[in-house]
Design goal:
- This protein is of the alpha/beta class.
- It is built from 13 helices and 16 strands.
- A five-stranded mixed β-sheet has the order 6-5-4-7-11, sandwiched between helices. A five-stranded mixed β-sheet has the order 14-13-12-15-16, with helices on both faces. Strands 1-3-2 form a three-stranded antiparallel β-sheet.
- A hairpin with a 4-residue loop joins strand 9 and strand 10.
- Helix 1 crosses helix 3 and helix 2 packs across helix 3.
- 43% of the residues are buried.
- The model has no long low-confidence stretch (mean pLDDT 93).
Length: 375
């Protein structure tokens, strides 16, 4: 009970700081003596600290309390098909250091080696603090079970990879492995475009397409954690062959991979960034982006009709091409949904750009740390 009350006090401070002891008691429903005792423990443990006096309501000015966001630091890693992005954040999700590495056609062993080296680099650049590195979160573009095993990541060509165990052998920290679209969705509702929304569908549009689902403010993962594999829903019967083995999948038509494949005859081995620049002057490239946007809208329409969300957020690398794909995406959604489907619906592009998933897994690690408590 004491541990639970302590967490209530801490979260009340995190949410409402600066706040006085008396106001904590009022917000939490705990008596003043309990609050005072738990606040003293949290100060001793450096989770919170006292700032200057607040406004008086007639008596002595109260001492205000603040959350110590520098008590520890979290590491978030997003393993993409053509990049690895690592960040160090404080306990409020502010990025204090990052490491980005573009990759191309690396073997499984090479990706694991690079992942380990990236984590080592992030640890080396973590500022000194009472609790140091409080956890490591890793996002992967694939189906991840509850034990941290990657069951299938077709775009990485991974199958039954016990990533959690591999990383545990290298680092003695709490480790979380999560699907990157789930992580991206959580990152957006914590720090990005979804902050004020409770029913959100996040579209992670990169080399593949993943979907993170937020229902009533909570991440929906399905019975076994496999929800959100909407990139492999069929949008064209007997269509293009997808790397998952099926045909006509959404990501075969609306992903970065689909874009690069379509543009091969114009500029072989082009990158997304190169094609975005070319689209300013090359109508054929611009047309490809518009086609990608149109197909993106078809898949989003299916999700709108299924979930009736408050908000759709389009994120990951294709969000860099917002100015090229937004209009055809919206046009496609309007064509494939009815007016009442669109009522009160907001469609936004990510505010966090490529950082959504890394921030999301970092936030998972922070949540885990703060729920455990210290002492």
């Amino acid at each position: 009970m004491k541990k639970k009350n302590k967490e209530i006090v801490l979260r009340t401070i995190i949410t409402n700081a600066p706040i006085s002891r008396a106001d904590i008691a009022q917000h939490s429903g705990l008596n003043k003596a309990t609050v005072s005792s738990l606040v003293n423990e949290l100060i001793e443990e450096e989770f919170i600290y006292e700032s200057g006096p607040g406004e008086s309501s007639g008596g002595r000015r109260p001492v205000m309390l603040l959350f110590n966001k520098k008590a520890g630091y979290s590491i978030g890693l997003d393993i993409g098909v053509n990049y690895i992005l690592g960040i160090v954040t404080d306990l409020e999700g502010n990025v204090v250091y990052e490491k980005h590495k573009s990759i191309h056609n690396l073997s499984f062993d090479e990706i694991i080696h690079l992942t380990i080296e990236t984590i080592k680099n992030l640890i080396e650049h973590t500022p000194q603090s009472r609790y140091g590195v409080i956890g490591i979160g890793i996002g992967v573009p694939g189906i991840v079970d509850k034990s941290g095993k990657v069951l299938l990541a077709p775009n990485l060509k991974w199958k039954n990879v016990d990533l959690l165990d591999i990383i545990y052998h290298e680092f003695d920290y709490p480790i979380i492995v999560e699907n990157e679209a789930n992580a991206g969705a959580y990152g957006e509702i914590r720090f990005g475009a979804g902050v004020n929304f409770h029913n959100v569908i996040y579209i992670s549009a990169g080399i593949g397409i993943g979907v993170g689902i937020i229902l009533k403010g909570e991440l929906y993962k399905g019975m076994n954690g496999y929800s959100g594999e909407s990139g492999h829903m069929t949008i064209v019967v007997d269509g293009e062959k997808c790397r998952c083995g099926n045909s006509g999948c959404w990501e075969a038509y609306a992903s970065e991979h689909a874009l690069l494949h379509q543009a091969k005859h114009i500029l072989p081995d082009a990158t997304l960034e190169e094609l975005i620049k070319m689209a300013e002057e090359n109508k054929n490239v611009k047309d490809i982006f518009q086609q990608i946007g149109s197909y993106l809208g078809i898949g989003i329409s299916n999700l709108i009709k299924t979930f009736n969300p408050q908000q759709i957020i389009i994120g990951n690398r294709l969000a860099k091409a917002k100015h090229l794909i937004e209009q055809p995406t919206i046009k496609s959604i309007n064509e494939h949904t009815l007016d009442f489907h669109q009522k009160d619906l907001q469609i936004n592009f990510s505010k966090l750009s490529i950082y959504s998933a890394a921030l999301g897994v970092s936030a998972f690690a922070i949540e885990n740390f703060l729920s455990i408590g210290k002492g």
